[in-house]
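#struct-pred

JT: dropping the chains for the assembly here, can someone run the whole complex?
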Amino acid sequence: MNRKNQKSELIASLVSTIWFVILLFPFLVMKVNVTGGKAVVIFRWSYLPVIAISIFVLSFLWRRALEWNQHRGDKTPVRTPLSGIRDFIITALRRKPIKLGVMALLLLIVLAYPYVLGMYHTNIMITALIYVMLALGLNIVVGLGGLLNLGYAAFFAVGAYTYGLLWKYAGPAFISAGIDTGWLFWIALPSAGVIAVIFGILLSLPVLRLRGDYLAIITLAFGEMFRMVLQNSGPVTGGATGISLIPRPWLFGIRLPPRQAATYIYYIAIILVIFTIFVVRRIEDSRVGRALEAMREDEVACEAMGVDLVRNKMATFALGAFWAGIAGVLLAAQTTYINPDSFTLWESIMVLMAIVIGGTGSIPGAIGGALILKLLPEYFRPLAQYRMLIYGIAMIIIIIFKPDGLIPRNRKRYTFVEKSASDSVPGVQK
Amino acid sequence: MALMELKNVCTFYGNIQALRNISLTVEEGEIVTLIGANGAGKTTTLMSICGITTIRSGEILLDGVDISKKNPHQIVSMGLSQVPEGRRIFPQLTVLENLDMGAFLRKDTDLIKKDFEEVFDIFPRLAERRNQPGGTLSGGEQQMLAISRALMARPRILLMDEPSLGLAPLFVHNIFEVIKRINIERKTTIFLVEQNANMALKIANKGYVLQNGVIKMAETAEKLLANEEVRKAYLGL
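RK: done, full complex below.
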């Protein structure tokens, strides 16, 4: 960058410094002290240079960062020691024995996790895994289908309440019949999936013709409506107090102490997440997945190709809802207590944020995003009061510097074998 | 029996009538063109046939079956495919994936393979760019892709909406040659909506002139080319 450019940046930073100092003056420099019924304004002049200098530095750094971001694609990649290590790791991972070894190591870490780190960390991890499932489910709707769903927490609630209500109404019968109430979890798990799918289809009906902002608003309204209904139908759902003492899942009739129960739920969550990843990957590579992607790109063209948009959209919502329903049951089993406050718009936005941060449409992205968003706040409790600020800054930085997300989608490419190869088959190759 | 027939089709957008009693016939193996100025109702006619815009009255017959109440995907499955206006390719899908979407309703994997080759034979440029996302192609290549994608459905009748739109004159010539070739080699019936009346009428058997939602003239292409009124209004001669 040349000198002239640098000078203009300095001037721009100076202008923004002056502007911010004027803006922040009443908040940070002036302070009103009310003593004995008299208001005295105190001017804390020592704050002024601190504000000015920090804003100047931040503004200048931000401008430089934007400049760097704009031109970072211009240069041909240079071999640095860091990129060398990265390339080495990538090529090493391609080789089968190493890949298998890494997978085995990962599996070992995942399996040993609750024994090594104890109950506190296991519980945090379960919550994070629930979010991973939610993110993977929403990824089908938003990442593949391109339908912005802001009412996703409603399906999460459907799952949790399926289990909760099953416990509330069938529980006493189970107890009086002498059957272990832990069985309820295993009944709730598939039925929550089915019921969430039904809700997903029901929601998809009114929004079939909508897209973009309108779809977002309607789904948002649906999510909040659903929560309100849960909150205000006290006699049935327990209202704002929710449902408590939900039993933990059954394990061969053994009543587990909380610590072992957490470990058990952790393993169930791990299995469900692996199952989710497997199914979502299959969907992505299937005809349906391709149709979903095409729908995201151009609906009219899709119709012209003979894709049944109505069925496609229903399938998208139903598939997304299914995973949220399952995740809901898991949440109810882990916390043993549910109330409508666990399913606010904020939950939907968190899941959406996880997808955007991780990389829309990318499976590792959704997993990574959900883990980051759920784990980091837990381990940075002291910074809890700045959480929103940090989220906001992180989102802005990611959107500007990494618009495709942290782990962008590496699309599988459909390749076509040359005619000369006698048995040419168009197939999927990475 | 005509392959496709429109009988007194009326289409409305709200309470504005876009098509007034459109009637036309397309025989098997023909190239029929519909020409008209901006806003005459050409695209509406196509969208009505495809079922994307619903018609208020009249009949649209494909092989004698009324398709006006059917869904777009049902109509595609009956052998009618379209190249939509403005190409509308899928920008993030690769050329191959775009083509594969064209064959979405087909199950005959072997024939699809052959059709890939045929399409690449017609447009060698696409073969070169098979793994490139559709959005990175040039305008002309995107048009090739849109036509190829429609061909992948193996339609009996291919509807094209302004394939020459926004293309360089030399390339327009090329596209029309390809359209003729598709018609002859694959025996695909073609219904061509065009503003470039001159080129369209040169390759067509029959032409219809659409004006303000009404069919003004229906003649063989040669007669329309020679018609004084048409020459003045649409050919600029």
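JT: nice. Residues 169-185 of chain B form the longest helix (17 residues). Chain B touches chain A at residues 50, 52, 71-73, 76-77, 81-82, 84, 88-94, 96-97, 100-102, 104-105, 112-113, 116-117, 130-131, 149-150, 153 (CB under 8 Å).
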